[in-house]
Amino acid sequence: MIGNHTVNTIPTEDYGSYYNNSDMWAPCNNSIVRNFGQIFLPTLYTIVFIVGLIGNGLVLCVLAKYSKRLNMMDVCLFNLALSDLLFLLSLPFWAHYAATDMWIFGSSMCQAVTAFYMLGFYGSIFFMLLMTVDRYLVTVHALTSLFFKRQSVSVGIALIFFMWAISLGASLPTIIFSQVKNESTGSMCQQEYPGKWRLVGYMELNILGLILPLTVMGICYSQIIPTLAAMKSKKKHRAIKLMLVLIIVFFLFWTPYNVVIFMHFLHYLGYMESCKWQHDLLMAMQWTETITFSHCCINPIIYAFMGQRFRTLVIKTLKEWFPICFSRCRTLHIQPTDKKSSMRSTEITTIL
């Protein structure tokens, strides 16, 4: 996976190279890390899988049910949930791999599961960025947003295909270099990178996984928040609060992992070569990677359930599916009082 185990997807080392003391980690004994990972990782992967499957599955069901009412924000949210589900589908395989330290699913499944994992990983990042840019256009550049709305179908389809295309492009090297290696301890699903491809992978992850998202979010939200603050909307404070939550949550969930990836990059260049550093890096990767993975469970909450419009659709759907349990839940209906002054603020706060 992305980190120190199962699959070497954004390339750090696989379980075999960590725990069997081969490659750049030799000759240190990392059996403690291995024993810890065999218990810790499957447990956490299972929790992330179940919670993320429920949350993102509900998002997809609700948006599919009300597909005729979807705007660009909803389409982005649908594809974000789809990306998270692709990512989540790979976790049971990695959980088994972590528990047994052996890949039993064959070479084809090694590449297929890696493809799900990588497409979900990058797709989630890129659709979060697209949603951020959409908020920026709707809030700061209303006229541009109106232009896009007139061509919403064609523009939306083009943007969605473009996001998936660049996600596939970013994932291809890892997918192509994935293969099953038969070693004395069993089969390993890992990547065999020629030349300096491993270093390229480290830099790709840091740039696409943290630097680019934080840059785009910082630029966009630095314009969105003052614009919302200037609006005469009673709901602007809730919208601003949500913006800050989005930035803070992304930073907290992704920064520790990317810091560890950068330290792996330095290690690959010949720094921090002591056994203590190796042990600490491997242990840190297990913790930070799991924190990053759990972000796909948080996405449905911060991007969907905190948004007034979507939350209304969720409650309405749950009332239909489970009338006994959710019959007392109240739904909100947004009714702007003045078209000129409240049209933009209503649209913005309801999609957030």
UniProtKB/TrEMBL annotation:
GO biological process terms, semicolon-separated? calcium-mediated signaling; cell chemotaxis; immune response; positive regulation of cytosolic calcium ion concentration
The protein in question is named G-protein coupled receptors family 1 profile domain-containing protein
**Taking every annotated instance into account, which residue ranges of this chain make up the domain G-protein coupled receptors family 1 profile?**
55-303
Keywords assigned by UniProt, alphabetized: Cell membrane, Disulfide bond, Endosome, G-protein coupled receptor, Glycoprotein, Membrane, Receptor, Transducer, Transmembrane, Transmembrane helix
Pfam families, sorted: 7tm_1 (PF00001)
**Mainly localized where?**
membrane
Record flagged with keyword Transcription: no
Spell out where the chain crosses the membrane: 39-63, 75-95, 115-133, 153-177, 207-230, 242-266, 286-306
Q: Which PROSITE patterns match?
A: G_PROTEIN_RECEP_F1_2 (PS50262)
Q: How does it sit in the membrane?
A: Multi-pass membrane protein
User: GO: which molecular function terms?
Assistant: C-C chemokine binding; C-C chemokine receptor activity
> Which species does this protein come from?
Pygocentrus nattereri (Red-bellied piranha)
Lineage of this protein's species?
Eukaryota, Metazoa, Chordata, Craniata, Vertebrata
Q: Where in the cell is it found?
A: Cell membrane; Early endosome
Specify whether Membrane is a keyword of the entry: yes
Report the GO terms under cellular component. Answer: early endosome; external side of plasma membrane
